[in-house]
């Protein structure tokens, strides 16, 4: 009897479900439905003081999409849209009426694409672009923090894939669940708003590595190590607008955050020519495990003052983590929660791939803006990147039971 047939028999008898190669064999031989794996069962509540999709680990799939309001759509129409979108997100995350934790599709848009899937950690996050306020007669309520991002000299931005009246970030650990959410929201917008641009991103699938770890980006680096942590004493202050608003935010933005979205193409053909040692110097961390070149392991604090045997800095003067560090930028900090993208091979023959960079902060002028000003001129990594699209969005606090996102602005 071959090993395969033995395993097959054991799998069919239900002995091997859930472990290594046995699970694969069992799946092939399976005739009975099995329970949802942990991937499908993951549920992130839509309702809350803050919107979901900011502090949770980035999901395996993402759609970022910007909408522009139709010319005739006014503030009331926009409020109706946010109501429809919030109700749909509530249902698709299992918090709708009768959902009892199971996702349901809003009847008006039923396409059955996600019918047999669990919530799969779906999050739907809504934001307002600067142009939204002019279109809806709400310029009096425009946050100061939503001032246009400055022009960075190295930018190569495509205006058609930048900005937008409204922004939606969809994340899920299953591709069909994510696509379904995108379709439902697009259909719910019909007549009120149309898609201005849309981008698709991904990260590692949960369960693909033995231990959960910080994700790798498409340059192969472990990316996100030195992000602010929700357990840090100053995390909320850095990432969220305080109750009552802040210096640069009106009260309707309480518990909200500002998302800077950048499509950053990686010039992978040039990058791949560098030796691993050179690549590590460009970042300032080891590629294998993300440990800083100043010593220790991945979680050891970076020591920017560390000197090597030949009396040079262990972390080079133009290393990405030196130039981007809060210490080099007057304390400026943000929560980076991005997704990789790959849109096939570009007209130049190289992968059209990189990072859908999404950075969250309480005020972009104390987060992204000063850091990118610095990086744009003196980051060793910038020679291997091209910023191709950009947006800045005010993401208000979350919706409680019966509320919709943005209600405090729009009612
Ligand atoms: C750190 C990659 C763009 C801000 C890092 C690290 C990597 C990395 C590998 C080290 C691990 C970590 O702490 O996360 C990249 C890549 C980029 C990119 C591949 C573009 C495709 C940016 C941009 C900004 C930024 C546009 C902000 C304007 C930071 C910050 C850190 C960091 C603040 C932490 C620095 C510290 O240790 O204090 N990045 N990055 N990065 N990056 Fe980037």
TrEMBL record:
Can you give the residue ranges of the Dyp-type peroxidase C-terminal domain?
A: 215-398
| Reactions that this protein is recorded to catalyse | heme b + 2 H(+) = protoporphyrin IX + Fe(2+)
Q: Which cofactor does it need?
A: heme b
User: What note does UniProt attach to the cofactor annotation?
Assistant: Binds 1 heme b (iron(II)-protoporphyrin IX) group non-covalently per subunit.
Give the Dyp-type peroxidase N-terminal domain ranges.
51-203
Keyword terms, alphabetized: Heme, Iron, Lyase, Metal-binding, Oxidoreductase, Peroxidase, Signal
The EC number of this protein is 1.11.1.-
Q: Subcellular location, in the record's words?
A: Cell envelope
Keyword ATP-binding recorded: no
Q: Which InterPro entries match?
A: Dimeric_a/b-barrel, Dyp_perox_C, Dyp_perox_N, Dyp_peroxidase, EfeB/EfeN, TAT_signal
Question: Primary place of residence?
Answer: other
Q: Which family does it belong to?
A: Belongs to the DyP-type peroxidase family.
Chain's role = Involved in the recovery of exogenous heme iron. Extracts iron from heme while preserving the protoporphyrin ring intact.
- Name by which UniProt lists this protein: Deferrochelatase
Query: What organism does the record attribute this protein to?
Result: Streptomyces polygonati
């Amino acid at each position: 009897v071959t090993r395969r047939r033995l395993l097959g028999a054991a799998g069919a008898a239900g002995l091997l479900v859930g472990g290594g190669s046995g699970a694969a064999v069992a799946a092939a031989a399976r005739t009975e439905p099995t329970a949802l794996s942990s991937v499908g069962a993951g549920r992130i509540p839509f309702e809350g003081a803050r919107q979901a999709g900011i502090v949770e680990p980035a999901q395996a799939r993402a759609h970022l999409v910007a909408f522009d309001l139709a010319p005739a759509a006014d503030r009331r129409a926009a409020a109706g849209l946010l109501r429809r979108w919030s109700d749909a997100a509530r249902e698709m995350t299992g918090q709708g009426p009768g959902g009892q934790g199971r996702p349901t599709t809003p009847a008006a848009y039923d396409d059955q694409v996600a019918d047999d899937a669990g919530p799969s950690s779906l999050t739907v996050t809504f934001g307002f672009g600067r142009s939204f306020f002019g279109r809806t007669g709400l310029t009096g309520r425009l946050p100061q923090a939503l001032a246009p991002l400055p022009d960075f000299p190295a930018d190569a931005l495509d205006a058609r894939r930048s900005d937008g009246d409204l922004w939606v970030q969809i994340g899920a650990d299953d591709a069909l669940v994510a696509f379904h959410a995108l379709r439902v929201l697009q259909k719910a917008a019909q007549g009120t708003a149309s898609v201005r641009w849309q981008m698709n991103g991904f990260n590692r699938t949960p369960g693909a590595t033995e231990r959960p770890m910080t994700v790798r980006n498409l340059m192969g680096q472990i990316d996100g190590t030195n992000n602010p942590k929700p357990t840090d004493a100053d995390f909320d202050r850095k990432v969220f607008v305080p109750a009552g608003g802040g210096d640069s935010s009106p009260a309707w933005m309480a518990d909200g955050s500002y998302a800077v979205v950048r499509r950053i193409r990686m010039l992978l053909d040039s990058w791949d020519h560098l030796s691993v040692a050179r690549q590590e110097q460009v970042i300032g961390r080891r590629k294998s495990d993300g440990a800083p070149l100043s010593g220790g392991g991945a979680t050891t604090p970076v020591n920017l003052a560390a000197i090597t045997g030949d009396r040079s800095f262990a972390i080079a003067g133009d290393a990405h983590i030196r130039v981007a560090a809060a210490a080099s930028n007057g304390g400026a900090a943000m929560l980076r929660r991005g997704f990789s993208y790959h849109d096939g091979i570009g007209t130049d023959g190289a992968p059209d791939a990189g990072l859908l960079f999404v950075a969250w902060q309480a005020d972009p002028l104390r987060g992204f803006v000063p850091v990118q000003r610095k990086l744009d001129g003196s980051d060793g990594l910038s020679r291997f990147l091209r910023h191709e699209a950009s947006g800045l969005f005010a993401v208000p606090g979350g919706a409680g039971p019966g509320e919709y996102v943005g209600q405090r602005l729009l009612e």
